[in-house]
Amino acid sequence: MTYKRIVIAGTRSGVGKTSIATGLMAALAARGLKVQGFKVGPDYIDPGYHTLATGRPSRNLDTYLMTPAAVLEAFERAAATSDIAVIEGVMGLYDGHRDTGSGSTATIARLLAAPVLLVVDATSLGQSVAAEVLGYRSLDPGVNLAGVILNRVSSEGHLEVLRQAIEEYTGIPVVGWLRRGSLTPLPSRHLGLIPAGEQEDLGPVLAELAATIATGLDLERVLALATQAGPLPAGGSRLFATAGAGVREKIPVAVALDKAFNFYYQDSLDYLAVLGAELLPFSPLEDDRLPAGAAGIIIGGGFPEIFLAPLTDNRPLLADLRRQVARGIPLYAECGGLMYLAREIIDLEGSKWPMAGIVPAACRMQKSLAGLGYREARLCRETLVGHRDDCLRGHEFHYSTMTSKDTDFPPAYTWEHRGSIWYDGYGTRQIVASYLHLHFLGNVGAAQNFLAACRAYKGGRNLETA
Fold it and tell me: Which HAMAP family does its entry note (predicted)?
């Protein structure tokens, strides 16, 4: 089937991809089009802006975390009810896994047979811009580099120098340009963009972005290029179609969702729902107890370190969480969720903030990155999400470390990285909490095992003795 689709890629990080992609989504949505946003890679924050700009949940596409067949299925499932799909790339066009290149924007563009618009930072560039664009086109002829967007152009005279060089030497059209400083900046802090879920009203910011993009880009030309994408290649998986077979009852699963915890892949949640989960949102910041009848708990990532006082002060919720865990409820947590389950979080000033105390460890914040990158992990033992030596693929990105004084502390995962063996998280038959973020379309067994444990708990079985 044919879907209108376009990729917004960059020559490198920091060229304005997110603002331009989000503004384009908002500008097309303002025309009355149903726009489906996608993000290449494991990012959680950019999709939040896409979702606000389009009114539809944005999806992640990643050929390291997911198989190519699963990527095709995820794309087609979401794009099927849209008028156009806008896919924001990650880092530079060809940047991906350090060893294989997997997960790059170029890989996704080839897989989806999608035209690419390359965002170029024009700062201090003249005719040499043509060599840069030519290099990006020539490196992989399988990537359809269909147009260029020039950002941070200093003047109309500067534009003409750049446009003439690009179009004369490469034959690739310049489909839009933006003057330096014209893009409304998305709210940010020291860790990068502030998640959309932490902010009250981004409407005016998105409206300004949409207006800037509608003025600076030739939207009709962008739509024409998206239309030329042609049929979507065959080979998509049928994970969603097969997941619902035989599901007879819904299993209530509590999902932490508020300003502190909002890092979830939408397709992971959708897959759990098709498997039979009834997802019940709750707020560790504001609720005093877990949703009634929950047979499982998921606490995803986020920035709990920004909300230490209200998380610590919500003692009723922490007490109810400990009470439910003592009764044997299955509990799965990632990154920020792991930190919340620890005995305490130690902030940058050395202050200690008591947390749930379910994982017998402390998490300490630091100014430098503690972990970043794709990981091929193996389970250290029988756990909630799988069997000993099962392999799972995920991604980590965190500024805290976890330490425990317990001599029998059970790590969840192990992996090899740069010649060293690393251990991560806390894993038992009832609880898995780690820094590793999983995409359930790439780790379907983990999703199925977790929900099976929830179903068993609902049926009265004790997971630790099963």
Answer: CobB_CbiA (MF_00027)
Tell the residue number behind the tokens 């969480």, with chain if given.
Answer: 321
Burial of 315 by CB count in 10 Å (0-12 exposed, 13-18 middle, 19+ buried)?
exposed
Give the C-alpha separation, 301 to 1, whole Å: 36
Q: 335, 363, 391, 454: which is the annotated catalytic residue?
A: 335
For residue 132, give the nearest of 19, 13, 12, 7 by alpha carbon: 12
Question: Going by C-beta distance under 8 Å and a sequence separation of 6 or more, which residues neighbour residue 32?
Answer: none
Q: With beta carbons less than 8 A apart as the criterion, state whether 437 and 385 touch.
A: no
CA distance 5 to 220: 14
Q: Tell me whether residue 442 is in a domain.
A: yes
Q: Give residue 178's pLDDT.
A: 98
Residue 293 and residue 203 share a domain:
no
Name the residue type at position 27. Answer: A
Looking at residue 29, its pLDDT comes to 98
369: domain range?
Answer: 245-458
Reading the block at residue 304, the tokens are: 């709990």
Which SS3 state, helix, strand or coil, does residue 86 take?
strand
pLDDT tens for 257-285 read 999 999 999 999 999 999 999 999 999 99
Residue 283: closest CA among 324, 308, 314: 314
49 located within any domain: yes
- Measured between alpha carbons, how far is 461 from 266 in angstroms, rounded to an integer? 30
391 is catalytic: no
Note whether 408 and 306 are same-domain residues: yes
If we measure between CA atoms, which residue out of 160, 161, 183 comes closest to residue 17?
183
Phi, psi of 77 (to 5 degrees): -60, -40
> Judging by DSSP bridges, how do beta strands 261-263 and 297-299 pair with one another?
unpaired
In this prediction, the residues of the chain whose per-residue pLDDT falls under 70 are 190-191, 462-466
Angstrom distance (rounded) from CA 71 to CA 231: 16
Q: Scanning the structure block, which residue is given the tokens 């198989």?
A: 67
Same domain, 217 and 272: no
Neighbouring C-alpha atoms within 13 Å toward the C-beta of 410:
16
Q: Which phi and psi (to 5°) does residue 212 adopt?
A: -65, -45
Last residue of a domain, one of 227, 259, 294: 227
* Judgement on whether residues 262 and 324 belong to the same structural domain of the protein: yes
Q: Is residue 183 exposed (0-12), middle (13-18) or buried (19+ Cβ within 10 Å)?
A: buried
Q: What is the DSSP string of 403-451?
A: E---TT---SEEEEETTEEEEESEE-SSEEEES-EE-TTT-HHHHHHHH
Does residue 33 form part of some domain? yes
pLDDT at 464: 60
